């Protein structure tokens, strides 16, 4: 089994490590780097995975997965440059950062794969989109897809689509959590105890997600099946349309896409 090192084990890095353990990887096959010793000790205590420095990670790992904030990429590239080359495999999870940035800053021929995952990898239900850089071969993509398919679904997309993917599925879980949070508040408004409202909405979300994933029906058909003539649901739908919820989602996701583009542009002058 390949050894995998996660550089920057924050929220998504930890989700990946935890998901890989859940999927049957052994702690010895995993490594991480973290800049704060307390965070490193916390993760080793929780998962039994060793925290190492970048040079140790580059020496021992077959796959180096960069999971720092895009704003923190510069020192990571400086540290990686003398340690990697054509025989390495660098995977970037960073929103907005193009493979061309890595290719410019790392030795000629270093294979880089850009990935946009999401946090449901914690429960083996991630959606990850992968795009090869200039020096990544189909074999590199196969290795990355195999790794990610152990924690969810994987799709290959052209890199030009990665900013849109980031806005849709990278950030997507946050939109659903936001919606659930607001719906629970509606239950409170209607006088239900919070625990009851939570159970009603979370199970409705799980059921709806399962129907979306498992039935061949379009979401419109599934929604229409809930919307009885002169019933309750259509009254709610009228309010959602009146308040521009559809337009708000289009604008929100477009704004997320724009931010992803901007994060990449911040490094264009390197
Ligand atoms: N969160 C998500 O749902 C998703 C995030 N991503 C991408 O993943 C990346 C990380 O995001 P997220 O996990 O949310 O952010 P976090 O800030 O939670 O995680 C980044 C981690 O990297 C650490 N770090 C920073 N610099 C270094 C360094 N030089 N060496 C080692 N560790 C370092 C940070 O430490 P410190 O706390 O000190 O800053 C932090 O623990 C981003 O690029 C984001 O775009 C992609 C898909 C989904
Ligand atoms: O909010 C962010 O920038 C990251 C990228 C996608 C999800 N979280």
UniProtKB/TrEMBL annotation:
Question: Keyword GTP-binding, does the record have it?
Answer: no
| Locations listed in the record | Cytoplasm
> Can you supply one Gene Ontology CC term for this chain's record?
cytoplasm
Q: What is its EC number?
A: 1.5.1.2
Which top-rank group of organisms is this from? Bacteria
Reaction(s) catalysed by this chain's protein:
L-proline + NADP(+) = (S)-1-pyrroline-5-carboxylate + NADPH + 2 H(+); L-proline + NAD(+) = (S)-1-pyrroline-5-carboxylate + NADH + 2 H(+)
The UniProt record lists the Pyrroline-5-carboxylate reductase catalytic N-terminal domain at 3-96
- Biological processes, Gene Ontology terms: L-proline biosynthetic process
Specify which residues bind NADP(+) according to the UniProt entry for this protein: 67-70
Task: Summarize the protein's role.
Answer: Catalyzes the reduction of 1-pyrroline-5-carboxylate (PCA) to L-proline.
Protein name per UniProt: Pyrroline-5-carboxylate reductase
Lineage, uppermost ranks: Bacteria, Bacillati, Actinomycetota, Actinomycetes, Pseudonocardiales
């Amino acid at each position: 089994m390949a050894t995998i090192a996660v550089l920057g084990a924050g929220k998504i890095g930890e989700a990946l490590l935890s998901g890989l353990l859940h999927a049957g990887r052994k702690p010895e096959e995993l490594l991480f780097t973290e800049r704060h010793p307390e965070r490193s000790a916390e993760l080793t205590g929780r998962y039994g995975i060793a925290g190492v420095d970048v040079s140790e990670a580059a020496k021992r790992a077959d796959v180096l997965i960069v999971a720092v904030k895009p704003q923190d990429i510069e020192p990571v590239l400086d540290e990686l440059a003398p340690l990697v080359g054509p025989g390495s495999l660098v995977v970037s999870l960073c929103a907005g950062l193009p493979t061309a940035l890595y290719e410019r800053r790392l030795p000629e021929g270093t294979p880089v794969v850009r990935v946009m995952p999401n946090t449901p990898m914690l429960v083996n239900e991630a959606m990850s989109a992968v795009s090869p850089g200039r020096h990544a071969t189909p074999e590199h993509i196969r290795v990355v897809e195999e790794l990610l398919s152990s924690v969810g679904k994987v799709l290959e997309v052209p890199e030009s689509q990665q900013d849109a993917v980031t806005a849709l599925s990278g950030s997507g879980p946050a939109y659903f959590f936001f919606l659930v949070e607001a719906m629970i508040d509606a239950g409170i408004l209607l006088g239900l105890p919070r625990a009851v409202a939570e159970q009603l909405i979370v199970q409705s979300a799980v059921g709806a997600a399962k129907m979306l994933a498992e039935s061949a029906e379009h979401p419109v058909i599934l929604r229409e099946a809930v919307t009885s003539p002169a019933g309750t649901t259509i009254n709610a739908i009228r309010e959602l349309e009146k308040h521009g919820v559809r337009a708000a989602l289009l604008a929100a996701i477009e704004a997320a896409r724009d931010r992803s583009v901007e994060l990449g542009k911040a490094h264009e002058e390197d």
